[in-house]
Structure formats: structure tokens, C-alpha cells
């Protein structure tokens, strides 16, 4: 592959290759010296048009562990605020002869646009409400690390499905395996129709009680164009996962969240900090997974 724009176009074999490579890189990260000279002399630029903490720092660490030279692009201090177009920004960056562009943008389809207009390898770090492919890959890696497999699992995704690029990428990935997916949340935040391997639940308990994995999402207020729920307090009361959920969850159910968490809204502190939670494991695995993606991509020769 030259680019990783989305999960949708990947085959199961390609996903498994990325996850197996991530496993090898995670072993590297356990060593005293965590850096490998694999991509020494190549350059990556992190082009983030939206705020990010976990994803940007995870990519930066992954790049440095692969011995890449790293540039971080700050939109607030760039010519973008003066009206420069995405295309002209890209051409300026291209003149630096970079090899990898990691991009997050508020517009769906922006990563594909950039990939089609540069010889550099483009990695989509989130585009609008479209996709967030490396989050789905690290989620899959984390599930396999605990459960040993994806096939045969029931996975409940709870929250603002309609506005979540994480949910969309996870749906595309999990649908390439033999999984049962539950979408759980208020009707205004769930799709009206779903694929055959997806069941829709408006009742939290019914949606998560037999799940092997419960993946929680925050309410994406910044991407909503209207009032989809009466208030965050009401959302928390009806669809927030609290400690009483332990009474009806399976004993080996794991809890996930892509971050940032809104404690007291979609997840309580008792759930977030419990032994069932693998949220911090997801953060750790993000570095190895993103190392694998960068390593496997092949920029075009100039």
C-alpha cells in the first residue's frame, strides 16, 4: 500500500498483516532501547487541523521509534489561518520532500484528496465523520491481545454512532471477521438501518449484557448540527455505563474507549478504572500499531 486512508478498502489478510507486524513492534517497545533504524533518513509530517492529544503523540512516538525525522504542523500558527487552501498547504509540504503525511482534518474525504495529490504516503488520523483507521486497528490489536481472537466475539459499541469515525472504522474492520456487533444508544444517535451483522439496541442493558467487548464512545457535540439529546446529564442517566453494569455484564467482558473519556457521562470512574478496562492498554498498543502501519506503507518514488 502507498496510503492508509480507510479500513473499508483493506482485506482481512491486509488487516492481519498489520496486526502481526504490530505484535512484533510491541516486542521491540519492551526492550531497553526502543528505537529501530528501519526508516532512518526518511521524514514524516504530522498535519493536524483538529485538536488531538492521544493520536498525535502516539504517531509522533511511533515515528521516532522508527528513526524518522518528524515535523509537527501547527494550524494555529500556519498560513491556513490566512486563507491558504489545503491543496497549497500540501504542495508547500511536498516541496520539503517528506515521505509520510499523517493528517487529521474536519472534512470527510480530505485524507483521500491529499493521498491522490502527493507521492508521499498518507495516513488518515481522522477525517470528519468518515474514518479513523488506525484507531480501529489498535482496537482490534488490543481485543486480540486479551481475547486471543476476533472471530466469534460479540462486540457492543455504545454511544454516538452516527457522528463517530471510530465507530465507522471499527464496523468496517469487525465486519471482515465473524463478529456480532451491537449498536447501543439513543435513537437520534444511531443509524436507521444497519448491516446484517449489526443489531440495534435502544436499551443499554439489553445491548451490552452478553457482550464480550463493550466499546464506549463520547457524545460528539462538536460534530452535531442540532440537539440530538436533551442534556448530557440525561444521556448519562440512561446510556452511561456505571458500576451497576457489573451485575449483568459477563465476568470476562472487557471495557474499551478510544478517548478522550468524559467521566460521569458515557463512563463512570468505577468502570474506567476497573480491572475490566483495557483503555490504557489501547493507548500503549497505539504506538506499536502505528509503527506497523508506517513500516508497511511504501511511498512512491519521486
Q: Under CATH, the topology of the largest domain is which?
A: Rossmann fold
Distance between the termini: 16 Å
User: Could you name the ranges where pLDDT drops below 50 across 5 or more consecutive residues?
Assistant: none
User: What are the secondary-structure elements, in order, as H or E?
Assistant: HEHEHEHEHEHEEHEHEHH
When the domains are counted, the total is 2
Broad CATH class of the largest domain: Alpha Beta
How many DSSP E strands? 9
Decide which structural class fits the backbone: alpha/beta
Principal-axes geometry comes out as globular
The CATH level-2 architecture of the largest domain is identified as 3-Layer(aba) Sandwich
Q: Nearest-angstrom radius of gyration?
A: 19 Å
Q: What does this molecule look like?
A:
The chain contains 10 helices and 9 strands. With 302 residues, the protein is of the alpha/beta class. The chain folds into 2 domains: 12-131 and 285-296, Aspartate/ornithine carbamoyltransferase (Rossmann fold, 3-Layer(aba) Sandwich), CATH 3.40.50.1370; 133-283, Rossmann fold (3-Layer(aba) Sandwich). The strands form 2 sheets. It has a 5-stranded parallel sheet. Strands 2-1-3-4 form a 4-stranded parallel sheet. Helix 2 links the parallel strand 1 (43-48) and strand 2. Helix 5 (133-147) packs across helix 6 (165-174). It is globular, with a radius of gyration of 19 Å. The mean pLDDT is 92.
Short note summarizing the structure:
With 302 residues, the protein is α/β, with parallel strands linked by helices. The protein has two domains: 12-131 and 285-296, Aspartate/ornithine carbamoyltransferase (Rossmann fold); 133-283, Rossmann fold.
